[in-house]
Amino acid sequence: MRRNFVGKIVCLASALALSAGVVSAEKVLKLGTVGFIGMPIGDAIDQALIPTLEEVSGGQLKIEPHYRRSLCSEQTCGEQANQGLLSLWTSSTANFGNFGTALAIFDLPYIFKSIEDADRISTEWLAEKQCQIAAEEAGHVCLTVYSSGGFRQLANANGPVQVPSDMAGLKWRVTKSPIEYTLVKNWGAVPVPYDWAQLYQGLQTGVVSGQYVATPWQHVAKLHEVAPYFTEIGGSWSGNQLSIDKRQYDALTDQEREWLHTAAQAFGQKVQELDRAWVEAGEAAIKETVKDWYVPNEDQLMLWRAGAIDAWLNAKGTYDPETARRVLEEQGMTGFIAQLEEAGAF
Q1: Could you tell me the pTM of the whole model?
Q2: Rounded Cα gap, residues 16 and 22, in angstroms
Q3: Which three-class secondary structure state does DSSP give residue 102?
Q4: Which fold has domain 27-343?
């Protein structure tokens, strides 16, 4: 009897030890993001990134998400990742610029012709190429690049805008982005830095006449109610990225890295799908009520693109000219390439 009892104790101890070993082997990667459930970034984290990583790793590698700036804003999330306070983080490609210029090419105005082109080229080769550079330069391993809201579009309260000269003298709300400031100024308007939270009221009262914001965000904020004249010029793509601190990435095993890249790929595909649907829904809702939605012809678009030349010149040195040329060539944008060459941007 005693032998049987001792045997049972040994078996129980072995089982507990094995269980403890499994628990200690589990790794949790803390993720900080401004995204939240109900918008494409948050939904893709919840529906693709987290479950895919748990599935492919058999529960050995998990993600602990912190949404809605509960831990950090975009820039501070990257800083906290460097400090080891979290592992994964998301941000706009513009805010990634606080750590290096590897993703600056995604922010060049008119680098992409359409959402479809941006998604295709980023997925096929551009994101991988630039993320490899980012890993060496920025201290962060960029896992995927994706859209959050598609392209910015012009909207104003005054009247139809078809070409840049129609914006002459109008007060146009801008963010702190030097690129946006340059674009609006070159198009003839007066750039006015203005807080996002006050923008609806500012357009309603005439403090500013127009704005340049991605269409789904315009719909969410109901800006089309007070700025009902739209111009579909595209230009500035709303690029975002998902990264992990490089030192923490290097500390993962080869198998764990493979799991993480598989999950990041699933996330990228899901967020691309959700974001495109979000853009389409926002634009469809806006078009039902606005007074004008104008789509410039190719000759008019050349005028809009001309206003972007200075932004490219100001950004010179932050992007590889041959990489940028390849992106434009793959979209057949020979006219814009000629404009950039003449100005000395390449």
Answers
A1: 0.88
A2: 10
A3: coil
A4: D-Maltodextrin-Binding Protein; domain 2 (3.40.190)
